[in-house]
Amino acid sequence: MKLLFVCSRNKWRSLTAEKIFHRCNGYDVRSAGTEEQARIKVTEGHIGWAELIFVMEKKHAARIRQKFPHAASSKKIICLDIPNEYKYMDEDLIEMLKSRVSEHIELPDN
Question: Closest Cα partner for 105 from 35, 37, 67, 53?
Fold first, then answer.
């Protein structure tokens, strides 16, 4: 399954998610950001590629739907409600990501 994680600048939250979930068997994982200065900017290609899209905040889902209405119309976009207050690989962020993502997909026990 192809998972896309999206935050604003693709430096802390979505990049952490990509790093921790890329090791999960059966998942192909990428991350991107919605802002102009994002490390990797989300594109229509990302949206088309993904089978499931996880966003950190509601504004990210709104930006994706506004910028890529056709590509996003058939996609499941899940908001994880994770505020922009964590640094890359922050332990609290990792635990929150694992907990919230596991409500939607099966994760290995580790």
Answer: 53
Q: What confidence tens digit (pLDDT) does each residue in 23-77 have?
A: 788 899 999 999 999 999 999 999 999 999 999 999 999 999 999 999 999 999 9
Distance CA 37, CA 78 (A): 23
The two tokens of residue 44 are: 């229509």
3-state secondary structure the chain: CEEEEEECCCCCHHHHHHHHHCCCCCCEEEEEECCCCCCCECCHHHHHHCCEEEECCHHHHHHHHHHCHHHHCCCEEEECCCCCCCCCCCHHHHHHHHHHHCCCCCCCCC
The pTM is what? 0.96
For the chain, how many residues are written? 110
Contacts of 36 (CB under 8 A, 6+ apart): none
List phi, psi (to 5°) of 75: -100, 145
